[in-house]
Specification:
Blueprint (H helix, E strand, L loop, with lengths): L2 H9 L11 E5 L10 H9 L2 E4 L5 H4 L6 E4 L11 H13 L4 E5 L9 H10 L4 E4 L4 H9 L13 E4 L11 H7 L3 E4 L5 H10 L7 E6 L7 E6 L3 H7 L6 E5 L5 H14 L1
Parallel strand pairs: 1-4, 1-5, 2-3, 2-4, 6-7
Antiparallel strand pairs: 7-10, 8-9, 8-10
Helix pairs in contact: 7-8
Bound molecules: S-adenosyl-L-homocysteine (SAH).
Amino acid sequence: MSVVQEAIARLIPHLTPFEPGHVWLAGAGPGNAGCLTLDVIHALASADAVVYDALVEPSVVETARSAQLVHAGKRGGKASASQDEITGLLIELARQGKRVLRLKGGDPFVFGRGGEEALALARAGIGFRILPGVTSALGALASAGIPATMRGTNKAIILATGHAAGGKEDVDWAALAKTGEPILVYMGMSNLARITDALTRGGLTPSTPAALIMSATTPQERVLISSLGSLAAEASAHGFESPAIIVVGEIVRMRSELLGLARQVEAG
Ligand code: SAH
């Protein structure tokens, strides 16, 4: 047994058993297998059915060797099952007495419709459990070397969705801009220019540090460091696309300082 297997074996008695007829709504983190929680690995190994979203890495889903695998799609622009179809399927599988793992990218309760799915399960009287995951914005910051909070720089962070930018359900970007706190935007790539413009109209100067972190924690990760005024143009010039997190605020500056120092340490 490897040292990793031994460590996991010691932790297994502390894990909650996966009961038949239950649904576990879980987050697989931003992509890297190292970000999976032990609960999720346990669930993958013991599930009878896994219903997973597009942003979950195939190599992670493939660890559930003995389970029925259902791809629920759910990625902007691509054909996917409707939310009602997904919740209907979860309920049906649970009523067949299966252990059902509902696996989402990041954390299931952060912009992942996990709340809606949990509510549908509760209403149907199905036993469920929520397994947290590393949410992609925080995983992306860690991976890119940008501290989410830094004493003297910020006392709060804002997580927002850019999905509805420009539409009726849009976020009040001006109100967020006025807080002066860093803003992390999920699902914002197709509305990037709209979002940066709205933040500028809301009072942030075009020179405010801004970044994009694409495919964070995966081998395809790319980071763009820019300013609020130039971010959208540079993103298209350099081919940045979804999935990515938009980061706006002074915390972005810490990256060059940290990485510069890290390089000195490596060199020394
Ligand atoms: N529940 C998820 C978010 C789902 S919304 C979570 O907690 O992370 C989907 C959005 O998440 C994408 O549009 C993108 O903004 C972000 N995202 C997901 N995986 C990502 C990754 N590896 N790198 C950067 N952003 C990612």
